[in-house]
Structure to design on (814 residues):
C-alpha cells in the first residue's frame, strides 16, 4: 500500500494552536495567582482549563475527521508515529528527573547528613545524632512533617502491579483482535483495559487516603514523602490521561473507526499505556520494594 | 475506509493578513516568525545587557539598585538563551531543513505552528514578572535554591513560563526529528544530508532528552516553595546541591543545543566560499554525535566548588577534557576545508571565519575551567562570563548572523548590501572583543560575577567592556537596517546565489515556492 511518493499531504491552516496558547497561558496565570494567594486565581485557572479542553476537543476532532475521510497517506502516518515515539521519550526523561532525585536522596544526601564520607562535620556540627536510616528516617534530620510510617509493598501496591500488568495483556489482546478483524474482542479487550486502569486509580486513591489518615505520610513528610507522592502522583496523572485516551479510542472503535491496517491512534494509545505500565514497574521496585 | 489516498498539494491557497501568520502551517512562514521573534528578543535581552554594562561602567552604584541589577543578569540570560538563540535556530531549521532534505514542509505542520505561538505568550509571562511585587527573578538564570525561593510574586510565573518554553522546544524538536527521519526525498540517505541537518537532528535529540529534566527540576522548586516538599531542603533529607545536579544534567546538554546548529551553519558556509567540499564529512558527523554523548556525562564541571567527593571532581574533569577531542576534529576540518581553497570573503564567510577563531578562544578558556583545581580560582568570576560569552556571542550569535547573510538572498530573492554587511561584520567583531576580552583579565584577578559593584582596580577594563557593549549593540542596528532593506528590494539573486553553493536549497528559485518540493527532487 504505497503510492505516496511524489505527492505530499500538507494540512490546511488551523486556529487551534493559538487557542491552545491562550488557554494554557490563562491556565498558568491562574495557577500562579492561586499559588500567590490571589483570590482571582482559581477562576482564571478554570477559564484557562476550559479553553484548553475546547482546544483539545477541537484539534483532535479535526484530525480524527480528516483521518476518517482518508486524506492522510502513509507518510503522514509515519510522521505521527515518530511524533508519538519522541513524545513518549520526553515523558520518560521527565520521570527520570524524579527517579534521579530519589536515587540522589537515598544514596548521597541522606547518607551525607548521617555523617558518611565528607558529611562527617555536617553530621557532627549541624545534625548531631542523626542516623540516615531509609525509609524510617526519610523525613530528614529536621523530622519535617512529623512522625510517619512507610507504605509497604505487599498490599495495594502489589494488587496495582497485577492490575497494570493484566491491562498490558488485555490491550495487546485487543490489538491482535483489531488486526484480525474481530471487532467484539477488540471492544471487550479495550473496555477491560480501561476498567483495569480505573480500578488502579481507585486503589491509588485509597492508598493515598490510607497514607494521609493512618500512616501520617504526606507530601510534606521530608524527602521520603516528597519523592513518594511526586513519583506516584505524576504516574497516577499519566494513568488517568492514558485511561481517558483509551476511552476515546474505545468510543472510536464502537463507532467503527480503524481497520486492520489503518489504526495509528490505537497504537499510539497502546504505546502510551505500555509506557505508563513500565514506569509503574520502576516505581514498584524503587519506591515500594527496595 | 480505503487504505491510502494520495493528495496533490490541494491547499495552495495563500492566506493573507494576520490570519496567515496566526494559523499558518507553512514552514517558511513559521521560520520567518521564529526569526523575527528572535530578533526582537535579541534587542530586549541586549537592552538588559546594556543596563548591566552601564551600571558596571564605574565602581559604586550608579543607575540601578542591586536587586534590579540581579534581575537584569537573570532575565538577560533567560531571554538570550530561550528567546534568542534557541528560536533563531528553530527558525533556521524551519526554513532550511525541508528544503535541504528535499521535502515539501515540516512533518507535523500544525504542531509547528503551536511550537512558535507558545513563545510570545511564554515571554510575555516571563517579562511581566519585572513589574510584579518583589521584582523579577534575581537569583540567576540557574535558579539555585534556596536563593531562588526568596523570589516574590514573580516566582510561579517564572516557573510556568519555563514550563511553557520547554513545551515549545520539545514540540519543535519532535518536529525536526520527524521531518528529518520521514520527509527526506528518495535517495537522500542519512550520510548525504547536509551537516546543518545532521547537527539539528542531534540537537533535537538532546532537546527531547533534557528539556523534560528542566521541567522536572523547576517543578520540584515549585512544590518546595508552595506544597511543602523537601527536595532541596537538608532538614527534610533533601539537598540544595541535588538541584544543581538535576539542573546541570539539563544545562550542559543545553549548552550544546546552543552551539551544535552553529557548527552545521559554518560547515555549510566554509565549503561554499572556499570552493571545496567539506573536509572530513563523516568525521564531522561522528564528532557531533560524540559531543552530544559526552554532554550527558560532564554536567558537574559547573559545580566543582560545591563540595563533591574527590572521585566526582576527577571524573567530571577528565570527561570534560575529552570534549576537546571531537571539537578539535571539527575546528581542524574547517581549517582543512579552507586549505588551498579559492577563498573569497563575503560577509557570511567573514562571520564564519570569526566564528572559528573566536569560538576556539572560548573553547580554550573552557578547557582551563575544566581543570578542577584551577576552577576553584575561576569559579563565579568574570573569567567564566568571558568564557561563555565567547562561545555564545561570537559563537552562536555570529553563526546565526552568518546564516542570515548566507540564506537571506535565497529567502527574499534579493542580494543584500555587501558593503553594509562588511561594515556590520567589522563593527561587531571589534566591539565583541572589546566587550568580552577584558573580562578574562578582571576575572582572573578576582572580580566576581553577578555583583553590581567592584573594586577600583577593575575600573579600566570594565569601562572598555561597557564601551564595547554599547558599540556592539549599536552595530546590530546596521544589521536590522540591512535585513529590512534586503526584504524590500535589491539586486535580484540567482537560484544558486553563491558561486560555490551546493545543496538542494540552491536548486529552488530565489525566493523558493510556498511549498518547497511538491514533488521529490532527484538526489545524485
Amino acid at each position: 500500500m504505497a503510492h505516496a511518493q511524489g505527492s505530499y499531504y500538507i494540512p490546511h491552516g488551523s486556529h487551534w494552536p493559538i487557542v491552545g496558547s491562550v488557554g494554557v497561558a490563562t491556565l498558568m496565570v491562574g495557577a500562579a495567582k492561586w499559588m500567590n494567594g490571589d483570590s482571582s486565581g482559581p477562576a482564571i485557572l478554570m477559564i484557562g482549563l476550559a479553553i484548553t479542553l475546547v482546544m483539545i476537543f477541537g484539534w483532535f476532532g479535526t484530525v480524527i475527521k480528516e483521518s476518517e475521510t482518508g486524506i492522510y497517506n502513509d507518510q503522514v502516518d509515519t510522521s505521527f508515529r515518530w511524533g508519538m515515539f519522541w513524545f513518549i521519550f520526553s515523558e520518560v526523561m521527565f520521570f527520570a528527573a524524579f527517579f534521579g532525585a530519589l536515587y540522589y536522596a537515598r544514596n548521597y544526601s541522606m547518607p551525607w547528613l548521617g555523617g558518611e564520607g565528607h558529611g562527617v562535620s555536617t553530621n557532627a556540627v549541624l545534625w548531631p545524632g542523626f542516623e540516615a536510616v531509609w525509609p524510617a528516617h526519610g523525613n530528614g534530620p529536621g523530622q519535617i512533617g512529623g512522625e510517619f510510617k512507610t507504605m509497604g509493598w505487599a498490599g495495594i501496591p502489589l494488587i496495582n502491579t497485577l492490575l497494570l500488568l493484566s491491562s498490558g495483556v488485555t490491550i495487546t489482546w485487543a490489538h491482535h483482535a483489531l488486526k484480525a478483524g474481530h471487532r467484539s474482542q477488540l471492544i471487550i479487550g479495550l473496555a477491560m483495559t480501561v476498567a483495569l486502569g480505573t480500578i488502579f486509580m481507585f486503589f491509588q486513591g485509597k492508598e493515598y487516603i490510607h497514607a494521609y489518615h493512618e500512616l501520617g505520610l504526606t507530601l510534606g513528610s521530608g524527602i521520603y514523602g516528597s519523592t513518594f507522592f511526586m513519583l506516584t502522583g505524576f504516574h497516577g496523572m499519566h494513568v488517568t490521561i492514558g485511561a481517558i485516551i483509551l476511552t476515546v479510542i474505545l468510543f472510536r472503535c464502537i463507532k467503527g473507526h480503524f481497520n486492520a491496517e489503518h489504526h495509528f491512534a490505537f497504537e499510539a494509545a497502546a504505546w502510551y499505556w505500555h509506557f505508563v505500565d513500565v514506569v509503574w514497574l520502576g516505581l514498584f521496585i524503587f519506591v515500594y520494594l527496595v | 475506509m480505503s487504505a491510502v489516498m494520495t493528495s496533490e498539494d490541494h491547499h495552495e491557497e495563500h492566506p493573507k493578513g494576520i490570519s496567515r501568520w496566526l494559523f499558518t502551517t507553512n514552514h517558511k512562514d513559521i521560520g520567518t516568525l521564529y526569526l523575527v521573534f528572535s530578533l526582537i528578543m535579541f534587542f530586549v535581552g541586549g537592552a538588559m545587557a546594556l543596563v548591566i554594562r552601564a551600571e558596571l561602567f564605574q565602581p559604586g552604584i550608579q543607575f540601578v539598585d542591586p536587586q534590579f541589577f540581579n534581575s537584569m543578569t537573570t532575565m538577560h540570560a533567560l531571554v538570550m538563551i530561550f528567546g534568542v538563540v534557541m528560536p533563531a535556530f528553530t527558525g533556521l531549521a524551519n526554513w532550511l531543513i525541508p528544503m535541504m532534505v528535499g521535502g515539501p514542509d515540516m512533518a507535523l505542520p500544525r504542531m509547528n505552528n503551536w511550537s512558535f505561538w507558545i513563545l510570545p505568550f511564554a515571554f510575555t509571562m516571563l517579562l511581566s514578572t519585572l513589574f510584579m511585587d518583589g521584582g523579577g527573578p534575581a537569583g540567576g538564570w540557574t535558579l539555585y535554591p534556596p536563593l531562588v525561593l526568596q523570589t516574590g510574586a514573580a516566582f510561579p510565573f517564572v516557573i510556568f513560563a519555563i514550563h511553557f518554553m520547554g513545551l515549545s522546544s520539545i514540540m519543535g524538536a519532535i518536529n525536526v526529528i520527524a521531518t528529518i527521519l520521514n520527509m527526506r526525498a528518495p535517495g537522500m540517505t542519512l550520510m548525504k544530508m547536509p551537516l546543518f541537518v545532521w547537527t539539528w537532528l542531534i540537537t533535537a535529540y538532546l532537546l527531547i532528552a533534557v528539556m523534560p529534566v528542566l521541567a522536572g527540576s523547576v517543578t520540584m522548586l515549585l512544590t518546595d516553595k508552595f506544597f511543602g516538599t523537601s527536595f532541596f531542603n537538608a532538614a527534610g533529607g533533601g539537598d540544595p546541591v541535588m538541584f544543581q545536579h538535576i539542573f546541570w544534567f539539563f544545562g550542559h546538554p543545553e549548552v550544546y543545543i546552543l552551539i551544535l546548529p552553529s557548527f552545521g551553519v559554518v560547515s555549510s558556509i566554509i565549503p561554499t566560499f572556499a570552493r571545496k567540499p567539506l573536509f572530513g564529512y563523516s568525521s564531522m558527523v561522528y564528532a557531533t554525535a560524540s559531543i552530544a554523548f559526552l554532554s550527558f556525562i560532564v554536567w558537574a564541571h559547573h559545580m566543582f566548588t560545591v563540595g563533591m567527593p574527590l572521585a566526582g571532581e576527577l571524573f567530571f574533569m577528565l570527561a570534560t577534557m575529552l570534549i576537546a577531542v571531537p571539537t578539535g576534529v571539527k575546528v581542524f576540518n574547517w581549517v582543512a576545508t579552507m586549505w588551498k581553497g579559492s577563498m573569497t570573503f563575503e560577509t557570511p564567510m567573514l562571520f564564519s571565519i570569526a566564528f572559528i577563531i573566536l569560538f576556539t578562544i572560548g573553547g580554550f578558556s573552557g578547557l582551563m575551567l575544566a581543570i578542577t583545581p584551577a576552577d576553584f580560582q575561576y569559579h563565579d568570576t568574570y573569567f567564566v562570563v568571558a568564557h561563555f560569552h565567547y562561545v555564545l556571542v561570537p559563537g552562536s550569535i555570529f553563526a546565526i548572523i552568518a546564516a542570515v547573510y548566507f540564506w537571506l538572498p535565497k529567502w527574499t530573492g534579493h542580494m543584500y548590501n555587501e558593503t553594509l554587511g562588511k561594515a556590520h561584520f567589522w563593527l561587531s567583531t571589534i566591539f565583541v572583543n572589546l566587550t568580552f576580552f577584558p573580562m578574562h583579565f578582571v576575572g582572573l584577578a578576582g572580580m566576581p560575577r553577578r555583583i553590581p559593584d567592584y573594586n577600583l582596580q577593575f575600573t579600566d577594563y570594565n569601562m572598555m567592556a561597557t564601551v564595547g557593549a554599547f558599540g556592539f549593540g549599536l552595530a546590530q542596528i546596521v544589521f536590522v537596517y540591512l535585513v529590512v532593506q534586503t526584504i524590500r528590494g535589491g539586486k535580484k539573486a540567482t537560484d544558486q546565489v553563491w558561486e560555490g553553493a551546493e545543496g538542494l536549497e540552491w536548486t529552488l528559485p530565489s525566493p523558493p515556492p510556498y511549498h518547497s518540493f511538491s514533488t521529490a527532487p532527484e538526489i545524485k
Remarks:
- Chain B has a mean pLDDT of 95.
- The two ends of chain B are 38 Å apart (CA to CA).
